[in-house]
Amino acid sequence: MTEQAGTDALDVAIADALAASTSDASLRRSEQRSSQIEEQIARDPSVFRMLTGDRPTGHLHVGHYFGSLANRVRLQDAGVETLVLIADYQVIADRDGTGPIAERVHSLATDYLSVGIDPARTTIFAHSQVPALNQLMLPFLSLVSDSELYRNPTVKAEHDATEGRPMSGLLLTYPVHQAADILFCKATIVPVGKDQLPHLEQTRVIARRFDERYGRVDPARPVFPQADALLSAGSLVLGMDGTKMSKSKGNTIELRMTADETAKVIRKAVTDSNRMITYDPVGRPEVSNLLMLAGLCSDRDPVAIADEIGDGGGGGLKRYLTEALNEMFAPIRARRAELERDPGHVAAVLREGNERANAIADATLAEVREAMGMVY
Ligand code: TRP
């Protein structure tokens, strides 16, 4: 769910870099592994621990909802132990300063709670608040080479998208930091889009090398497990202008918007001059995107919706979408509005999540020190 300045350039660059570096065979392996894991979850969710996370760079929108949030809630509700990370240190990997970080962290936590992430079952935390997690970065950095870091295609693409900024040490090494995010809690599954696969591979390499170099506290079991990506389709939903849904383009429908604000954004959506509404993603991408979103919101086939609207034109389509979307998100928005009136509750959820994450991180760091012989 990377959302940064220059998002479009970034997407194209990431797609190119991945095409060059990730062979079809390895992508297919990840896909196969993902469906195996889904089957295992259906049988026994208790053997997994899931970690996911987002950079707190803006408000979450319906693209995030259908691309990843709904899936997290599904896995949580299926009984997978879940941690959700607010990756605040990652914000400064490629920008100057933290911006309105406290508001953004609070807003992200509010979004999580409003979509159904349940703090009784799921740990929501920010990695800047968990010192032992960050300390794992030091031994982990000793396990990777600089050329390995420079080769990471996603880092390269992200750097290219900054258009001439010098590469910060943090941008170069953030995949190692992300390995610390995943390994501090010994997560075994990480739901991500394709752009994050290089970081998952780096994480597995670090876990393996730690074991080879420092050994084990318990001879039967390495300190760190091998984490698997659970590949998600990513956000299929485009913005109201038919390009990627992105805050910087003002084409998003945010979770926090009111029904009226939503209607206004949809009214401005790009369609075409053919009054007959048909689902044709290649020939009519803008119209088809609105149909797909309407389908997701009403749990219907976009083709059936198109048939129903018939020659109702863009106006008819927009009315249908506005109603379907506002209806589907009404309970989420009501919950969000309630949470906004109770900022103390959101702060308490974060405090508790940070506490739980600290307990886990402290235990893992103790094991790491023991494996490394650093107990004095
Ligand atoms: N890099 C991820 C993104 O931009 C966010 C993230 C940080 C993350 N740490 C993570 C995702 C650990 C999964 C696991 O979307």
Task: Give descriptors for this structure.
binds tryptophan; mainly alpha; Rossmann fold; globular; 16 helices; 3-stranded parallel β-sheet; two-stranded parallel sheet
What's the CATH superfamily of the largest domain, by name?
HUPs
Distance between the termini: 42 Å
Mean pLDDT, to the nearest integer, reads: 92
As a percent range, the share of helical residues equals 55-70%
Unreliable spans: 1-8
CATH class assignment of the largest domain: Alpha Beta
Named CATH topology of the largest domain: Rossmann fold
What class, by secondary structure content? Answer: mainly alpha
Number of strands: 5
Give the overall silhouette.
globular
What's the alpha carbon Rg, rounded to whole Å? 22 Å
What's the number of structural domains? Answer: 2
N-to-C SSE series? HHEHEHHEHHHHHEHEHHHHH
What is the level-2 CATH architecture name of the largest domain? 3-Layer(aba) Sandwich
Major β-sheet, in short? 3 strands, parallel
Strand order of the largest sheet: 1-2-3
The ligands found in this model are: tryptophan
What is the count of DSSP helices, taking H or I runs of 4+ residues? Answer: 16
Strand coverage percent? 5-15%
